[in-house]
Specification:
Oligomer: single chain
CATH topology of the largest domain: Beta-lactamase
Number of domains: 3
Distance between the termini: 89 Å
CATH class of the largest domain: Alpha Beta
CATH architecture of the largest domain: 3-Layer(aba) Sandwich
Strand order of the largest sheet: 15-16-17-24-25-26-27-28
Largest sheet: 8 strands, antiparallel, barrel
Length: about 600
């Protein structure tokens, strides 16, 4: 009896071990599952290069467009702006120099910089690495004045400039993200090593790792470089066109903290070097990957987190608003490396966030999200559906045919549908299943109309009730009147509707017609208050919070063909599917929980 019981326990133990092994090993067809996911995701707006490697490469492929206008697809060899991924390089260089005894993370920066303001003298390297220094002001080349760009050009003037701003808090008492802190670390690397920052990381990090295509430089073959996109196909150009000095080199607002160019293979080589000990020792890595701020998972220039209990170290990067966003992870216990490099943001959301999570779910747990099918249909059939469709409320759907680069030899047809009017937006976004959001949207539509009318009348009292605390009604009126003097009086206002962002907040769009100009403009709301967000900073401003929109409609979504008349979209950020179909050649039908909603094609003649 005892022998039989022991044998049963042994069998159960083996089954348990094997079940755990199955969970942590990629499925035999993980590469196929990943390719299927990203092929569909590219039809839904994903654009980037991805890599997963565990006991060999699972997937290494590009999807989407590197250049939309010239129809150049992304490949595994496409070059991307890595954004704040650079901070991982800078942090590792600091740790390498500490390992060599040339500095200590406990050093205060007064050891390296002279004539510091008194409140900055006690800042330590540790605090720069963990964003706990209190430094919060950052220069950005794309919005800097000529005077500020002159300051950013030279190291000493930049240092004096950023340190002239007050701290957000006493060093070590809190945490706020600081690009400036990593530029200061780059300066310390230069002082300690006696080499320019770029040369140091190239010689002591990149070369030992075997990386040959990473750095601040312009490749000669522009066909390999991904242009940046935001809000659909709004084109922000190449990395050097808005972020670098005269298109030739970055200034100190980027050095050490962001903006390098790299490739999928180079990032993979970097992660292999981090996995090994070619750059820093295991002991140094232990200190570098230690969590120093639990709520954020902040380590030294890296972050440490868990997926379903499985720890990993990672680094992300976002070039806002230009569109490039990247992420790379190392699951040490699973021996899994994952890399996502992208060139697109959608409604203020970095697409690397959902792409990386879904990649790991598939590669590590064999749990792909349930995306709609992606049928191959004749593009001529889709073009026949193009046009404007009107709902009973007067809201409009604008339909046009498009194509997605899906990693195959030729692009695949998709349908692009835009919503104009709140009812159309609600149906596209959620099939009208979010009554709370719909009510809020209607309230904000009324509020933007009241804001425009208060500006037109120069009504300071009304503006005071609309603008958030700290915003000046007088300044808002001055900017508005300056615009009116140049472009003529406001003649017509039409609210187009409110759509949610892929981060906290929503945006309300309005069509304005002035005597000499007109167009679509927008405001952003967060917690029902007007808000300035980084994604909008390059869009021309009329007055406080009101900017020219680079897109003509509040919501623009791609739909995958299910057949020649049936289509589905899937929100990759929120996991929601919307189904539509076309009937009798002139009806667009949206499926909702309460039945179908029909829009009729408008005779545009």
């Amino acid at each position: 009896m005892i022998k039989r019981l022991m044998r049963l326990i042994a069998i159960l133990f083996c089954l348990l071990v094997n079940s755990v092994t199955v969970l942590t090993q990629p499925a035999p067809d993980a590469g196929l599952a990943l390719d299927d996911y990203f092929r569909k995701a590219s039809g839904l707006g994903f654009s980037g290069a991805v890599l997963a490697a565990k006991d060999g490469t699972i997937l290494r492929k590009g999807y989407g467009w590197a250049d939309v206008r010239r129809r150049i697809p992304i490949t595994p060899d496409t070059i991307f702006d890595i954004g704040s991924g650079v901070k991982a390089f800078t942090a590792t260089a600091i740790m390498q120099l500490e390992e060599q005894g040339k500095l200590s993370t406990s050093d205060s920066i007064k050891k390296y910089f002279k004539d510091l303001p008194e409140d900055k003298a006690g800042i330590t390297i540790h605090q720069l690495l963990t964003h706990t220094s209190g430094l919060y002001f950052d220069y950005f080349y794309d919005v800097a004045t000529p005077k500020e760009r002159e300051i950013m050009r030279e190291r000493e003037t930049y240092l004096k400039g950023v340190l002239s701003y007050p701290l957000a808090f006493k060093p070590g008492e809190d945490r706020t993200y600081s690009n400036t802190g990593f530029s200061l670390l780059a300066m310390i690397i230069e002082d300690v090593s006696g080499e320019p920052y770029e040369k140091y990381v190239r010689e002591h990090l990149f070369k030992p790792a075997g990386m040959t295509e990473t750095g601040y430089y312009i490749p000669r073959d522009l066909r390999r470089v991904a242009r940046g996109y935001n809000d659909g196909d709004v084109d922000y150009g190449y990395p050097w066109e808005t972020q670098w000095e005269k298109g030739k080199r970055p200034l100190w607002d980027l050095l050490g903290n962001g903006g390098m160019l790299t490739t999928l293979d180079d990032v993979y080589k970097w992660m292999l070097a981090i996995k090994g000990e070619r750059i820093v020792s295991a002991k140094t890595k232990e200190k570098m990957f230690q969590v120093y701020h639990a709520r954020s998972g902040q380590a030294y220039g890296w972050d440490t987190w868990k997926t379903e209990g499985k720890p990993y170290v990672w680094r992300g990067g976002d070039a806002v608003p230009q569109g490039w966003n990247v992420e790379f992870r190392w699951y040490k216990d699973e021996d899994l490396i994952t890399v996502v490099l992208t060139n697109r943001r959608i409604r203020a959301g970095s697409i690397r966030r959902y792409a990386m999570n879904h990649l790991v779910d598939i590669a590590l747990f064999n749990k792909p999200p349930q995306l709609p099918a992606f049928a191959e249909v004749d593009s001529k059939k889709l073009r026949a559906l193009e046009g404007t469709y009107r709902l009973e409320t007067g809201a409009l759907f604008h339909v046009r045919a498009g194509e997605a680069a899906t990693g195959s030899a030729k692009p695949s047809p998709v349908l692009l549908i835009s919503g104009e009017g709140q009812r159309a937006i609600d149906l596209l976004f959620s099939a009208a299943t979010l009554p709370g959001l719909e009510k809020l949207s209607l309230e904000l539509n009324d509020k933007i109309a009241a804001y425009i009318e208060a500006l037109r009348k120069n009504d300071l009292a009304a503006l005071k009730g609309i603008l958030p605390a700290g915003a000046s009604p007088e300044d808002a009126v001055k900017l508005w009147n300056d615009f009116v003097r140049q472009h003529g009086a406001l003649e017509q206002t039409e609210v187009l509707g409110t759509s949610p962002l892929n981060q906290s907040g929503v945006q309300t769009f309005v069509r304005l017609k002035f005597k000499k100009t007109g167009g679509v403009y927008k405001v952003t709301w967060r917690d029902q208050k007007l808000w300035e967000q980084d994604d909008d900073r390059l869009q021309p401003r009329i007055t406080a919070f009101l900017r020219k929109s680079f897109v003509p409609f509040p919501l623009n979504l791609p739909f995958l063909p299910q057949s020649e008349t049936d289509f589905a979209t899937y929100d990759l950020f929120k996991g929601r599917t919307i189904n539509i179909s076309f009937k009798s050649g002139d009806k667009l039908v949206v499926d909702t929980k309460d039945g179908v909603v029909v829009a009729h094609k408008v005779n545009e003649k």
